[in-house]
Amino acid sequence: MPTTQPPSPLLSPYLSFPSSSTGGGGSFTLLTGTVGATTNWLVLRIIAASLGHGSSSTVRVVLASCLRDTAFWTDGARKLGIINDLFQRVTIIDLLRNSSGGNGPGGGVCGGICGNNPRLIHEEILQAINGIANNNNSDDNEKTVLILDGFDFLLAAADSRPSSSSSSSSSSSSFLQDLLATIHELRSHAHSIVVTASADSPLLLLSSQRQQTHHPSSSWCSPPPLEISHAAFVMSLAHQANMVMSVRQLDTGGARDVSGVLRITAGGGGQWGWGDDYDDDDEEEEDEGIRIIHEREFLYFVSGGTLDGGGVKVFDRGGAGVT
User: Fold this and answer.
1) Hey, is 195 helix, strand or coil?
2) CA nearest to 229, candidates 177, 187, 185
3) CA dihedral angle for residue 16, residue 19, residue 24, residue 30, rounded to 10 degrees
4) Which residues contact 50 (CB under 8 A, 6 or more apart)?
5) Phi/psi at 128 (nearest 5 deg)?
6) pLDDT tens-digit map of 199-253
7) DSSP H helical segments within 152-300, as ranges?
8) End-to-end CA distance of the chain
9) Full-model pTM
10) Distance of alpha carbon 13 from alpha carbon 11, whole angstroms
11) What is the pLDDT of residue 261?
12) Which residues are paired to 268 by β-bridges?
């Protein structure tokens, strides 16, 4: 019978979550990627690690995705070796589907099941989390890992809606605050939360560069609302997160045996509290039950260049690949 592929020894310490939630909600991990270096393979490995943690019935995963459909994640899980019995503990909320359940024209988050409304998205996700609790008779040992994939896309979808130029900035700011509030509220209902977002330089740096080069006679220097909202969204999440895992392409361009760089840093949300079952290792330290995350940087290679990252090797710079 097929079994789940074990993660890289270098990566595995960062895929597990604390055994007990800390104050203010569960642990928070932010994954950032770029157009040429997506976080899909990391999401799948977090799912696999979550399902393999503890007994077979104590951890459930809720994955809400704005960019990728159910078939994508199901196929990726199969390639990674997550067997059906384990994958039954994963609830996928496909925010791409339209009101009729398909992915055709007119569907998606703009005109689909949630109408690009953070409150409706919150209600659908919360319903899935509560449904898991009810199906398991509210087991106190039940833990839910919530993964929100591509929610920054909602900012672009909201920005594309017709509106007058005078109200564009205020509406973008209002939607941003609603979206951040939704994520914050959902965090209180999950043992651990993982959020993915794009961190391409044009979205994060151009706004600050324009402000630095601002000239009173130049209207071009004023960044559009989407740039401002996206930068504020990612920076806000980074300040709240306990850990940030970022993937990007090599600064020197493409390489035959390297797909990109994985950087792991502590976020602004403080270190994690851990229970008695925390297994310390050489990569990290444990000080009075607190997990200390040290900045690390690895190289990785996605075999075949597949978007779902069915086969990935993670290794130190100058080191041999470790599957």
Assistant:
1) strand
2) 177
3) 0
4) 15, 17, 59, 61, 145, 192
5) -65, -45
6) 887 667 655 555 555 555 444 556 678 888 889 999 999 999 999 999 999 888 7
7) 153-159, 165-187, 201-204, 206-212, 225-240
8) 20
9) 0.82
10) 6
11) 94
12) none
